[in-house]
């Protein structure tokens, strides 16, 4: 199954974002989760507003566990994190 994590950054914690950015990137690349796509989301001004991770998982719990150990989550960089099952209907997996 595909799972999607949508995480929105807390603008008041921008300094922490910079401190933990490299740790966050290393964690996403750690092969602890089968990530299909991942990257930042940006607003109209080009400023980072959060990030999206799409992963091939056995259960949503797998994504929840992975997310809970992300340095950005551990250190409160995000103001919100939501995890969903994604059932694509158009494109390569539909």
TrEMBL record:
Pfam families, per this entry?
A: YCII
Question: What InterPro entries does this protein's entry cite?
Answer: Dimeric_a/b-barrel (IPR011008), YCII (IPR005545)
The organism is: Rhizobium calliandrae
**Protein name (record):** YciI family protein
Family per UniProt?
A: Belongs to the YciI family.
- Which residue range or ranges hold the YCII-related domain? 8-87
């Amino acid at each position: 199954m595909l799972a999607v994590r949508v995480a929105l950054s807390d603008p008041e914690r921008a300094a922490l974002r910079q401190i933990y950015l490299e740790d966050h990137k290393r964690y996403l690349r750690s092969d602890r989760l089968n990530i299909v796509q991942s990257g930042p989301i940006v607003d109209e001004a080009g400023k980072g507003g959060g990030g999206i991770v799409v992963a091939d998982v056995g259960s949503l719990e797998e994504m929840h566990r992975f997310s809970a150990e992300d340095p950005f989550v551990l250190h409160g960089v995000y103001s919100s994190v939501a995890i969903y099952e994604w059932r694509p209907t158009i494109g390569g997996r539909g």
